[in-house]
Amino acid sequence: MAIFADTFSTMDYIEILGYLAAGLIGVSLGLIGGGGSILTVPVLKYIFHLDTVTSTAYSLFIVGATSLVGTIPKYKQGLVNIKTGIIFGAPSILAVYATRKWLVPFIPDVVFQIDSFAFTKSMFLMSLFAILMVFASVSMIRKPKVKEDSNNSQNIGFNYPLILIEGATVGVLTGLVGAGGGFLIIPALVLFTGLPMKEAVGTSLMIIAAKSLIGFTGDLTSMNINWSLLMSVTGIAISGIFAGNYLSNKIEANRLKYAFGWFVLAMGIYILLKELVFTS
Predict the structure, then answer these.
(1) 1 compared with 248, residue with greater pLDDT
(2) To 5 degrees, how large is the angle CA 198–CA 237–CA 128?
(3) Burial degree of 253 (CB within 10 A; 0-12, 13-18, 19+)
(4) What is the pLDDT of residue 232?
(5) If pLDDT is split at 50, 70 and 90, which confidence band does 54 have?
(6) How far apart are CA 221 and CA 99, in angstroms?
(7) What 3-state DSSP class applies to 194?
(8) Exposure letters 156-195 (e unless 16+ CB within 10 A, then b)
(9) Number of structural domains, the chain?
(10) Is the entire prediction scored with pTM above 0.85?
């Protein structure tokens, strides 16, 4: 009985740790407007011990739902450009759905093998995810080159070829690794459509919500969803957004974003080492 109690207690503590981490993901989204979703997959895989494909699928739903909630206040403030979101989001939504529906199941369980080393599907997805984390961390650590513009977007010009390419690329990456890709979308909106930074952030949330939630539907026919776990983690992450929004008035966001960037960088390096070097 004592052994059973100790085991149950350990499992209980790990589950609590996972829910706390989900709350911190939401808090980071509320505080710095992005970046937190990049931690969703590691939390699901390494704390809740879900397999890689399931983790990326659940992450799409969690990221999409939290982004949808985050879009609402931005829309009320007039910081969501619907037309731009549709033009950029359409190829992204198609790409993420197709990636989850056909590309991810098409990837073989063993991508390639050299002697006794097998580079598996899980290694491929997590390594790609870790590389994305490194790029995301760099965007948070370095000072932004694009200055904030408080003016309304009156003269927006669309570079359609680049928008289509960028949208489709972000969609494929989101479908593969389950991350929102805001650090790719926001600069693209500023550079290719001329949106002011604040409006680009709000529009990015709308795009992330749409493509992530629609992309998640591509997994519904190929896996059994643990809705209890998924809705619990999602609910806690959404609650974290409200806490983050409250704290954003008391904590300097730029310093927090800088520190969080280094944490994401460390996590990305850890995942690469765990998946490729210290494999069991």
Answers:
(1) 248
(2) 75
(3) middle
(4) 92
(5) very high
(6) 14
(7) coil
(8) eeeeeeebbebbbbbbbbbbbbbbbbbbbbbbbbbebbbb
(9) 1
(10) no
For 117-167, how does the pLDDT look when each residue is reduced to its tens digit (9 = 90+)? 889 999 999 899 889 888 888 877 876 655 555 454 445 566 778 888 888
Least-confidence region, from 32-41, 94-103, 114-123, 262-271? 32-41
Sole residue written with tokens 């995301």: 136
Do the Cβ atoms of 272 and 127 come closer than 8 Å? yes
**Alpha helices, DSSP H, located in 37-111:** 40-42, 52-76, 82-98, 104-106
Tokens of 94: 């198609």
- Give the C-alpha separation, 230 to 242, whole Å: 19
Are 265 and 137 a contacting pair, CB within 8 Å? yes
Element (H, E) at 8: helix 2-32
For residue 197, give its domain range.
2-276
Instruction: Quote the DSSP letter at residue 117.
Output: E
Q: What's the CA angle centered on 54, arms 45 and 37, to 5 degrees?
A: 60
Report the alpha-carbon distance of residue 124 to residue 128 in Å, rounded: 6
175 neighbors 96 (Cβ within 8 angstroms): yes
Least confident stretch, 78-92, 158-172, 206-220, 238-252 = 238-252
Q: Is 155 strand, coil or helix?
A: coil
**Longest Cα pair distance anywhere in the chain, in angstroms?**
71
- State the Cα–Cα distance between residues 70 and 146, nearest whole angstrom: 23
Any idea how long the chain is?
280
Q: DSSP 3-state assignment of 118?
A: strand
